[in-house]
Amino acid sequence: MATGISTLTKFIRNDLSKDCHSLRLLTISDGEVQDPANVQTEAAQLASLIKNEFTINSQAVRLFTSSSQPDTKAVSSLLQLNNVSNVNLLDLQTSLTNIEIIATIASLFSNDSLNRHAILKSDETILKSTPWQTTMNNTLSLFPGENLFWLSKLPTGNLIVGETNVKIHIKEGLTVDTYENLLKTKIEYYINQLKILKIVNTNE
């Protein structure tokens, strides 16, 4: 599996179109991984390369056969790349029909809006998509509906979406109630992300 991740890293670095800013990744495990330590190393290197540069929907499937038990930790290592939706570590049986397996896997990506997003650009490197993120960015993907993101400091430069300058309205400090209202639509997503980070034993 480590070889596969290394090949993916090289492809993204050297061969992927520079116009590509969104990725859909699917990892399938149908047995024990022989190189778990190398998998974690390669996955961490891939995460550092692309997680803050691309909009990524990464999902995983454990495919159960009659003779083997799929890996959990190694296959979850690529779920940490997901930055657009809840991640799924889906269990499927090979006894299902091909049509049932295909439909289930396709549903993991059906509503991710990767083909309908805008880019927020900042003059400063202060944007982050999660409150625990330590690496700041100067761009962030925005999706249809309400968007919640974090700033390392109050912006002093321009924020732009497309060709439009974003007007900044600074409101009163957060209270417990306003904080709850902000997070209630995201709390399930954050908990989901933290579970994956716990599985793969990484901080970000």
Describe this protein's structure.
By secondary structure, the protein is an alpha/beta fold. It folds into 2 domains: 2-112; 118-170, no CATH class. The protein is 31% helix and 20% strand. The protein contains 6 helices and 9 strands. It has helices at 2-14, 36-50, 73-76, 98-107, 176-183, 187-200, and strands at residues 22-29, 55-64, 89-93, 118-122, 127-128, 139-142, 150-151, 159-161, 164-165. The strands form 3 sheets. A 4-stranded antiparallel beta sheet has the order 6-4-8-9, with no helix packed on it. Strands 1-2-3 form a 3-stranded parallel beta sheet, with no helix packed on it. A hairpin with a 2-residue loop joins strand 8 (159-161) and strand 9.
